[in-house]
């Protein structure tokens, strides 16, 4: 694993436990292996504020949960599209950060067979997980979305969050621009690229006892979607620079875009649904 820490500030702390738990969201996507989404599907999370919500045209639903912990998400079978199958209908989701946690249900059946799937073109990214572990605590927690539903305008191009539990730093990336989609075809979801390169603006803040002031930063990133479910195979590179004039590297995951870090848990998933509209 290639993982470089910058601005380390003393002993390892349970930074995650020091974060507020008032803004925990779980984003779930329901789609075919060829990445065709399922809209109008009800998803319920036990213990969430509203209980249930319905997927949008991109197969995505966002549900708020009150605190960190493990939740059970259940798809209401009767709301699946005609011809769609899903087994199991339940999935345990571990929420380890007050940023968004991502999960996906892959459906099958005749509904998916009738869908041609997206063709070549641009791509977008969803993902979340951890890298490394020391004394039971991940070195890095990450999660976010880049070009949600393939739109550079939605949510300012997306958001990408990283918590470095060793350095007690929280990076928040926004105003994201996708530079390229490349690589090879994958089967789940069925897309013909597996690498996304992007850059943008953001902020970096000290957390969990780190008194470093919030600073403006720029960043470059690369995600490689190699295999489902991702842990132990998908790759992530991120380099964050001080935008205040020094342009010094203040956070880095992986050695370079050519030598990214292997994620330990979670998933990085590249999509092309909606990109040819």
List the helices and strands and how they pair.
Blueprint: E1 3-4, H1 15-18, E2 24-31, E3 42-45, E4 52-54, E5 60-65, E6 69-75, E7 84-85, E8 90-95, E9 101-106, E10 108-109, H2 110-113, E11 124-131, E12 140-146, E13 158-164, E14 169-182, E15 186-187, E16 190-191, E17 195-206, E18 215-224, E19 235-242, E20 249-253, E21 261-262, E22 265-271
Parallel strand pairs: 2-9
Antiparallel strand pairs: 1-20, 2-5, 3-4, 3-6, 6-8, 7-10, 11-12, 11-22, 12-13, 13-14, 14-17, 15-16, 17-18, 18-19, 19-20, 19-21
Tell me the strand percentage band: over 45%
The portion of residues assigned to helices is under 10%
* Text of the CATH class: Mainly Beta
Using the alpha-carbon principal axes, give the shape: globular
Low-confidence stretches: 1-22
Number of helices: 2
Number of strand segments: 22
CATH domain fold name:
Immunoglobulin-like
| CA-based gyration radius | 18 Å
Count of domain modules: 1
What structural category arises from helix and sheet content?
A: mainly beta
What's the SSE pattern?
Answer: EHEEEEEEEEEHEEEEEEEEEEEE
